[in-house]
């Protein structure tokens, strides 16, 4: 299957909800869309995934290779352990991971990971071992479909919520999953899997006792987190809702392939307002001090009022390439990244460019992670230096405005 960058391309369901007209700078993401819809026309498993970096104590968890999760010392760049290599997986079908698209979840000394292969895992980093004879078993549970949107751990109820590409929402007992180290080990479901009737590419988001997620047929769901029962009838957009929902001040924000950012009343499911962007919106919105920041596939970055959706900046910022990653604030600036792997620092009140671009040399889809004056990034692969070494960039200092360090973990 191929696309002509000079022509329109339509794909999706019978109604043709996905219609694109643009140069295909976003070919990787488009390929994933086609792969999931066309049942194998293109293999999405070839992607590393786009999991956001996650801090775990003094370490940084990144998916630097396809189906691998690495713990890196951010000071030295050294790898401390790699999942699943440093553990033992008893269930043979679960041993081959294909791609980690959602960020890991952490509960105490346990890390939970969902993979495109349709399995979810629980392991303890303290049990990592490079000695094959002494590796500890991993908790596993098989779902019915690929995990693209992701997982969410509700620490209060010890419930792990998972959305799958075949349209199901699962709610697992996280404590059971930790102990599910042998084939056939039971893992309790909080309620029967909820079938949304279409693909789910957003992670489940839990807020105030409700679970929110979007579907590729343009519906936003709100379910009771304890029972899975609907809180209100699904909100209907005119195209796929694939951005991670964000709940702020009683408002649910979600972007779609109809080029709109929607603000939905969390209590009623009614639309409060919508904002028309210039292309698909896959960015998880960032809400800071009553302003919503997000980007679209045309490379535009917007700032709108949470209260009414009115633009805050005189004009959107042009990042010159598709924006998939969620922006962050660091060192007094809004930091945005485009698909080409360029980072920019923007003036928060006006949206004007303050610094950048800082080039990573690799495409970037994963959300950014900010910690003080450091922004961690997870590019789609490793960068080759002139010396022939392959490096994994993961750290940018937003105060000195330099790519500060690299890792040889690839």
Structure description:
This protein folds into three domains: 42 residues, no CATH class; 156 residues, Beta Barrel (Lipocalin); 92 residues, Beta Barrel (Thrombin, subunit H). It is built from two helices and 35 strands. Strands 31, 32, 33, 34 and 35 form a five-stranded antiparallel sheet that branches. It has a four-stranded antiparallel sheet with strand order 3-4-5-6, with no helix packed on it. The N terminus is likely disordered.
The CATH topology of the largest domain is given as Lipocalin
Number of helices: 2
Distance, first to last CA: 29 Å
**Number of structural domains:** 3
**Strand pairing plus helix content: what structural class?**
mainly beta
What average pLDDT do the residues reach?
A: 88
The CATH class of the largest domain is identified as Mainly Beta
Spans where pLDDT lies below 50 across 5 or more residues = 1-28, 34-46
Shape: globular
- What composes the largest sheet? 5 strands, antiparallel
Percent of residues in helices comes to: under 10%
Into which percentage range does the β-strand content fall? 35-45%
CATH architecture of the largest domain: Beta Barrel
Query: How many individual β-strands?
Result: 35
Radius of gyration: 20 Å
